[in-house]
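quick one before i forget lol
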Amino acid sequence: MAEPAAELQKKLLRKHSHASVQPPGHKSSAATLEAPRGPEQTEYGQGFVQYMIAGSIAGMVEHMAMFPVDTLKTRMQMMAGSSRSSHSSLSRTFTSILKLEGPLSLYRGIGAMGLGAGPAHAVYFSVYEICKERLGGNRRGHHPLAHGAAGVVATVASDAVLTPMDVVKQRLQLLGNRYNGVKNCIERILREEGFRAFYASYRTTVIMNAPFTATHFSTYEAAKKGLKSVWPEKADEENLVVHVVAGGAAGALASAVTTPLDVVKTRLQCQIGIFQRHLTRSSKLWEL
């Protein structure tokens, strides 16, 4: 779920397209203003491929920058059942990982996320732009239903690309896992559990991301309006600080709303029955 970084990247691209200044005396004709765009052009004049690349880079940077926090989240969600007391706080989880495994363990599985996040976000932006155009979201005026529907379709498509690598990533994040890297994890899942194991949590992921997207964008727009009233000198439409503050607030609220489903997703992806023996053994180490 990379909506804050993706939205920020899109706003920055829009600002760049608006920065072009017409020469003195130039008058835009109605025909020029209403000229249809080719399929390779988006509503802000940016190339379609450019949006795909920008979205892909933004998604990869977001996921990989926050990867240590994601590792902590995965550990707490999976270990709570077998070692609740030792995972009662974020600080204790973090300290235990550093003490028992070292700081590099916080990045175990980051290769899988790198492989999945780039293509997934490229798919998200391409599908979003295509659907928004087909649904009339690029016409003049505000079209929230078209934008929302395009976002849902884009989320379903991007989750289909990201989910397999998310499964690999989360299994590698667990203490006492049975895998020796990304390649070994993929091979063993295919051999021992079959291809369907990569999509065991797909429906839950889609159900989770639908309210996440709705909560995120509604909060994001509300936060921007609030900043305009209390912080007018920093509330310009293209101001970086506004996007960071509004995006952070929106992401925090959306995550809080969807965390229960995120726990379900993690358990399905890691198949807690398969890992129960390893988790029980590992939990004893955390008690030391």
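fyi The radius of gyration is 22 Å.
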